[in-house]
Amino acid sequence: MIPQYYEFYCPVKIISGLKALSNLPYEMDLLNAHRALVVTDQGVVGAGLIRQVERVFEGSNCEIGAIFDQTPPDSSTEVVRAVAKLFSERGCDCFVAVGGGSSMDTAKCANMVVLEGADDLMAVQGVERLKKPTKPFIAVPTTAGTGSEVTVAAVIYDEQTRTKMGFASQRLLPDVAILDPKMTMTMPSMITAATAMDALTHAIEAYYCLQKNPVSDAFALAAIKLIMGNVIRCVKNGRDETARLAMANGALLAGTSFSNSMVGIVHALAHGCGGVCRVPHGVANAILLPWGMEHNLEKAGAIIAELSPVLGGSTPGSATDQAQAAIQAVRNLGMRLKKLCGLPTTLREAGVTEDELAGIAKIAINDGTVALNPEEVTYEGALEILRKAL
Amino acid sequence: MSLKAKQVGEPEKTLSGWLSNMDRASQYQGLSVSYKAKRVVARMSLLALGVAFEMASKHSVELQSELADWEDGRVFSLGVLPDGPSVSLRKQGDRIQYLGSGQDDAEIKILFKSIDSALLMVTCRMGSHTAFAQHRSIVHGNIAKAVQISRAMSIVQLFVAPGFVLKKICKQPPKLSPAQLLLKARILTTLPIAVLVAMRR
Lengths: 390, 201
Description:
A: 390 residues, alpha/beta, Rossmann fold, Dehydroquinate synthase-like, alpha domain, 2 domains, 15 helices, B: 201 residues, alpha+beta, Nonspecific Lipid-transfer Protein, Chain A, five-stranded mixed beta sheet, disordered N terminus
């Protein structure tokens, strides 16, 4: 069914496959950029991935002007300002983010600071506030995961107000996303599982939330197929390059989907869990996904039912039966991942206590994603889901 | 594209002139009667929504409960891009204060991309969540605070829109209690006068 109105935008050039990373200097040159600021974190450095990035510049007409490798798991305004300052001081003309969502968000926001000259990021907070073109930006994800290499959003923590600031703009999208299977092979099995569930949640929520459209649906379905077909392989054998590349593509497709049709209550609650209890985002999504799907059964059951075949839960019966089968398929996947790598399946296992649920629910109902959830999200409703997931 | 074209002097005593009088900002060259009329409807609807916000905040327990979490002095606005009609409001104590038209001082702005998009929501043909889902509106400022404002607006809409409209635009068809129905009747009967008073502010 075609929605009454929709918008879809994804101009990111996608480069995926064998030796994809070696195209990095060429892509920079195409963007008329020759001096990169690499934004990354200590984990990526420790895994030897930055050495791989440095190697590809050999013999090219481009160079690395600076490397910022201090990106924390949750980026902040101070980090963003430091990156922007380094960019200007070293005469760089291109951002290259190598890492997970935090490195990507840091690069996106630093690009904004460089563009707007804004010392105060709060002045550009919100949706579609950027009008000028940003500096060239190439994303090299090392998780399969957040999909940040194709999303319009960035979130960073403001130390002064102690709140998270959200930014959404088409200008924040990278110019190029490079998926090289070697860049995700060092991910430990638990992180592989958690980031895969993050990607799966993106795709599933994008498929049934209110902003869904035929284009995002196509991306979501393709993402779910790739993730369901490869996540177990990746968790069992991290050196399986084919499976790693499939997962990276699945995460990118899921990211494209949700960037254009948003997510809903699962992410709202996961953001709350992250904010209050520091539960990793992928872990929270993995635990909350089946409960969020259940919460939306009345309003979006028929749509959720359409996912049953691709989730591997197909069963004869009504749309309700199919929707229940889809939810059970997600639960089964969670149980399998728990057996394989210890991925938590309850909030308690993830370290959440009952007295923290109220705080999580309070954050969740003010999350930007709740407007797009098919079912109304109330404080009591959010609390009920959290209690069930505990 | 800006609407700041040349003003054409005193409006004539025509329908176009009358509409221009209703919305001073629409005294621009080249705007059609229908466009000017849309601006007037948007302006009046936003004004009514702003005044209803103020009225509801005085008496609605649900709205007051929602406002309890807001910081004092929060100024927010609803408006139409690029320089269309707009209204500003402020949270003062446990109430909302209607500040008038314009949005320069607003910390959070909910902006409709066009007059047509604005009319869909302010004339209750679409809920605020649908308007956001369909990219009809954007937010300048903190998104979490904008979500709170949107939720408060939904509560205000309960008191100004007819029941059959609410069933269509709300995610959950609301069931108003007798106290809420009484308040709704009170707001609807006094809203026209309140709007006229507000126009003179």
